[in-house]
């Protein structure tokens, strides 16, 4: 795969806190590969609609990489998306940053914002590929350990492909930054780390199979807070 | 506080999976009170912009309750918001639902979507109140254990008030639901639970105070996965 650095456009250039902007593609991919869900923003009837959804990533078949999204063919967000610029945001919240001053309270986070006009995937092969990338993004290896979608199920599902060309990444990490004159105030300052973790996989009541390796790996990779 | 049930409008009425819709206000408040961050969607230059941000809730001073948002007076999202309908989404992801069929894979989640035209808070008293609600939403009790914002800091900060009048709540829980004819397929099915947890609070390098009770409580309340 070849790729270009993130090319800031007017809408992806950070206007504030520019020190928090990452400009390389790997930073974008890291945020996307580490996330499980995104918030998809579309404009419907003149107002924004923001819905959480799963996504998949393919970095192997295009210069900048592709994000796959899916939804029911009847879903407002998915129906609206292919005709317009959408905004997809993936956010990791890594810690609550408690400063001595209310004003300098902050959040440690990594977020990616992607803009683009999604392409409605119509070819059967890419549609299946996109759906597999979504399932495998949530649980690597899962797409080969399930019954694949049949023709009727594929017909009920819309798949969108969004190029990862226009994007921005913003991160904050580290301790709180107070004003010089506040450093001796008698208030505790520090970070409460936040983690997204998995619990023990729970068999469906009607399933007595052992938890397979790919499910176990997924849970372990999320794991408990370090 | 008196409150009315959620009044579904065209844009908050679920078109699909109606069994996942909660229509009482308490379900909305539960999702909001349990969350820490939202995704704020606005329309800027004709396209959607979705950014993660903190929020605070006040259920005590109006019929339906208010969500407070804040940002730099220079922030695109906050500058755009008071002139238009925004969409604020709060999402909890509770589990990965792995079915025997790819098609029936799902996510256990609780999400709230709020629409409204935010009011720019201009009164000094409500502005401070709104900021305190945001800080106390992240860490209850924090607003009284910090240096309050001074006039200069308040002038740099915009606070928005969004009525919780028009909203929808959607949830999914429980095991995977496969087609009858797939129940004997030899694929593991179940749920990988997901949790947002806090780690041990980390003092800033320049702070040797003991972790105070309100910080400890916040971390404990998030706690480890049950």
UniProtKB/TrEMBL annotation, chains A, B:
<dbReference type="Pfam" id="PF12900">
    <property type="entry name" value="Pyridox_ox_2"/>
</dbReference>
<dbReference type="InterPro" id="IPR024747">
    <property type="entry name" value="Pyridox_Oxase-rel"/>
</dbReference>
<protein>
    <submittedName>
        <fullName>Nitroimidazol reductase NimA-like FMN-containing flavoprotein (Pyridoxamine 5'-phosphate oxidase superfamily)</fullName>
    </submittedName>
</protein>
<dbReference type="InterPro" id="IPR012349">
    <property type="entry name" value="Split_barrel_FMN-bd"/>
</dbReference>
């Amino acid at each position: 795969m070849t790729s270009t650095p993130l090319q800031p456009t007017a809408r992806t250039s950070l206007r504030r806190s520019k020190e928090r902007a990452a400009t390389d593609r790997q930073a974008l991919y890291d945020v996307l590969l580490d996330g499980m869900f995104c918030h998809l923003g579309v404009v419907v009837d003149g107002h924004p609609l923001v819905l959480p959804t799963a996504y998949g990533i393919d970095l192997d078949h295009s210069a900048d990489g592709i994000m796959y999204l899916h939804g029911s063919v009847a879903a407002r967000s998915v129906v609206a998306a292919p005709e317009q610029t959408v905004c997809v945001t993936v956010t990791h919240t890594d810690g609550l940053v408690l400063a001595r001053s209310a004003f300098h309270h902050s959040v440690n986070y990594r977020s990616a914002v992607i803009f683009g006009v999604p392409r409605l995937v119509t070819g059967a092969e890419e549609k299946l590929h996109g759906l597999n990338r979504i399932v495998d993004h949530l649980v690597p290896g899962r797409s080969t350990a399930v019954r694949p979608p049949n023709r009727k199920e594929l017909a009920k599902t819309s798949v969108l492909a969004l190029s990862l060309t226009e994007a921005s990444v913003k991160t904050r990490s580290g301790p709180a930054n107070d004003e010089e004159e506040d450093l001796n105030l008698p208030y505790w300052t520090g970070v409460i780390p936040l983690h997204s973790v998995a619990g023990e996989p729970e068999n469906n009541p009607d399933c007595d199979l052992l938890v397979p390796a790919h499910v176990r790996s997924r849970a372990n990779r999320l794991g408990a807070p370090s």
